[in-house]
Amino acid sequence: MGFTLHPDLVRDGIPMGEFPLCQVLLINNAAYPWFVLVPKRENISDTIDLSPEDYAQLWTESRVFSQAIMEGFQGEKLNVAALGNMTPQLHIHHIVRYKNDTAWPGPIWGKQALTPYDKPGIENVRNILISADMHNFTPA
């Protein structure tokens, strides 16, 4: 059985690329540099469902990605979370935060309506990720 992305992630995510284990999606909300890493495995809802090798690979990819987006977006704080209460497929949020963002210092969830990216905004994000030259990352 092949990997299938949950419909919520298809709806809200813009493909940015992939690592050996994870697909990288930009969440379509221009208010924050907000990404999810989704392990390309079927029927996985929590990190404990991954094999030991995939578990280690997930956190390696998360670390590489986290360093790249904090540098590329000049963030002040990075929020990394795996909630999955509404979307059961395992996905790890990576959100670059700034002390002047609208939700600071609290969580971003439910603070404001989503502000979709325009095409130049998506290309800008894509270019930041490409210029980061992340190990084992293939841009979409």
Task: Write a compact overview of the structure shown.
By secondary structure, the chain is an alpha+beta fold. 29% of the residues lie in helices and 22% in strands. The mean pLDDT is 95.
Category from helices, strands and their pairing = alpha+beta
Series of H and E elements? HEEEHEEHE
**Strand residue content:** 15-25%
- Provide the CATH top-level class: Alpha Beta
Spatial order of the strands in the main sheet? Answer: 4-5-3-2-1-6
Strand count, sense and closure of the main sheet?
A: 6 strands, antiparallel
CATH architectural type: 2-Layer Sandwich
Task: Kindly state the percentage of residues in helix.
Answer: 25-40%
Poorly predicted ranges? none
Word description of this protein:
The protein is of the alpha+beta class and 140 residues long. It has a single domain, classed as HIT-like (HIT family, subunit A). It is 29% helix and 22% strand. The protein has helices spanning 7-12, 52-72, 119-131; strands at 13-18, 22-27, 34-39, 77-81, 92-97, 138-139. It has a six-stranded antiparallel beta sheet. A hairpin with a 3-residue loop joins strand 1 and strand 2 (22-27). The longest helix has 21 residues, at 52-72. It is globular, with a radius of gyration of 14 Å. The model has no long low-confidence stretch (mean pLDDT 95).
Task: Tell me the layout of helices and strands.
Elements: H1 7-12, E1 13-18, E2 22-27, E3 34-39, H2 52-72, E4 77-81, E5 92-97, H3 119-131, E6 138-139
Antiparallel strand pairs: 1-2, 1-6, 2-3, 3-5, 4-5
